[in-house]
Amino acid sequence: MSADWNIQLAASFIWLGKAFLITLVCLVPVLWLASRFTRWGRQFRQLAWPYLRPGRGWKPLLTIALMLLLALFSVRMSVLFSFWYNGFYSALQDLNIGTFWFLLGVFSVLATIHVALALLTYYIGQAFEIRWRSWLNDWLTQDWLAGDAYYRTQFLDVVVDNPDQRIERDIAAFVNGSRTLFFGAVSALVSLVEFTEILWGLSGPLTIAGVDIPRAMILIVYLYVIIATLIAFKLGHPLIRLNFMNEKLSANFRYALMRLREYAENVAFYQGGAVENRTLWSRFSALIANLWALVFRTLKFDGFNLAVTQAAVVFPFIVQAPRFFSGAIKLGDVIQTSQAFGQVQDSLSFFRTSYDAFAQYRATLDRLTGFLDANTQARALPAIAIETRANTLDVAGLRVQRPDGKVLLDGLTFAMQPGQTLLIKGPSGSGKTTLLRALAGLWPHAEGQVRRPTGTQALFLSQRPYLPLGSLRDALAYPATASAADDSRINTVLHQVSLGHLSARLDDVTDWSRILSIGEQQRLAFARVLFNRPQLAFLDEATSATDEGLEHALYSLLRTELPDCMLVSIGHRSTLDAFHAVCLQLDGQGAWHLNPS
Ligand SMILES: Nc1ncnc2c1ncn2[C@@H]1O[C@H](COP(=O)(O)OP(=O)(O)OP(=O)(O)O)[C@@H](O)[C@H]1O
């Protein structure tokens, strides 16, 4: 078979147009069926459609169409190269120097196009992945934050592990896997059709045990690869679970390392290195045990795949040898046969060799859709509906339970007006912090009515001070944002809480929670209240790390600076009584009493 190189340009464009249309016509129903009737197809649609749907813009779909065109072009180039090899080797066999030089000229054109095509494919593919990844990152992060899902997923029956990994790694793996597997499959199928056609033209009959088999090459390659694929699927199946476990165990190990870094000082004080080492080692061992299982399974899987590929190298030569030596076909035909056989073999084998990649891809789909589903379930958990009402805290018939059903507090009813103060007391574990969680709308095991200011008009200072990543100015203003224009007000409140020495470091970006002592962090939290001037502040043991003198100074400051702010405090010290008019006493069994403090 030889090609007329003078008409190849026009012929290639016509081929490209036809192949593009045929591929689209075949692809659309296949994708639709997969997204309806397969689990991975449904998961893919759940993750991909929000980005790809034309209602949001045509750019992603048009980029996919362009990538499809490039993939088809690349198949066309392989076909042209295969004809080039045929002509070239036949010219060598015929000692035809004119054709030899002509074909070298053709090669330089083909090679230039090939290089340009490869670079363009790379660039467009990467640009597509980066844009899609950014969009997904934004979507999943917002979904995680929406409705306090990042906090409330802990109350689900099945808690999703390592959301950080799902956002950071799985999105990238999903985007890359979707592109490479999709275009890999499309290229494989189109190559299969093209090179089967070439092989059809090149193959002759084969006589086995007296029986003539027409077009034997085609029959051999298809039978060979289909049987090999079935065996490979069986060998590769356990890889799905092993890959899933690998991701999970790696993330668990990473989390243990991160935690050690986070609590470095506590561990160092306890001299708990040996215990930590055991924990780290046990998590690492689980990871390694799974890795060994993965290695042995991959040895079997890859060993089989490599053997199948190697054995296929010699087939076409053996089958064509009689026709070549009898002079029925030329050297170029033999070379092209071997290439076409290799291409058909590769294309058919795509589904076998990609089984591993597909297994990982499915694990990624599971992790990402599991994450989104958990967020949705967390948002659907019950919570007290908070009604916004300025300058009042009105609680009626509030019932708070532990997750195991034990009632901590029943029928709580009280109301507060601007400037009023309430101190919540009770034994440890009686539900004081949980009551605040319920009043914040975070606790799922609560019912009743709450009316209060919302948004930045209500501030909750939790037992453990929290400082966000960023500058000291950001930490002080949290959750509001402050700019340099607010510096004079920030400096005033810093001096008021005896942190004036920090006023020169407002722009310093560092991990402030490691630098400031707990007492200083608690003072910073008071500065936050003074800066944000809420109508209502909840202080959960907010002065537990300060001495009584400083506690007195901080509470006095709140009363004088924010006389209208309603204060709800939790605390064990009797020194707090003086700053609160009413005391709510809990017994942790459901009963409660309101007394003058
Ligand atoms: N996420 C949770 N899952 C299960 N039980 C919880 C959870 N959070 C709190 N509890 C339980 O609810 C009960 C009340 O806890 P809470 O933190 O409200 O007590 P507290 O009165 O604030 O205690 P302390 O004075 O020691 O801070 C405790 O028995 C605690 O173990």
UniProtKB/TrEMBL annotation:
InterPro entries: AAA+_ATPase (IPR003593), ABC1_TM_dom (IPR011527), ABC1_TM_sf (IPR036640), ABC_transporter-like_ATP-bd (IPR003439), ABC_transporter_sub-D (IPR050835), P-loop_NTPase (IPR027417). It is found in: Cell membrane. Residues 61-360 form the ABC transmembrane type-1 domain. Pfam families: ABC_membrane_2, ABC_tran. One of its GO terms (cellular component) is plasma membrane. CDD domains: ABCD_peroxisomal_ALDP (cd03223). The chain crosses the membrane at residues 12-34, 61-85, 100-124, 181-201, 213-233. One of its GO terms (molecular function) is ABC-type transporter activity. The keyword Transport applies. Residues 390-597 form the ABC transporter domain. Its main location: membrane. It is a multi-pass membrane protein. Keywords: ATP-binding, Cell membrane, Membrane, Nucleotide-binding, Transmembrane, Transmembrane helix, Transport. PANTHER family: ATP-BINDING CASSETTE, SUB-FAMILY D MEMBER, LYSOSOMAL COBALAMIN TRANSPORTER ABCD4. This is ABC transporter ATP-binding protein/permease. It comes from Pigmentiphaga aceris.
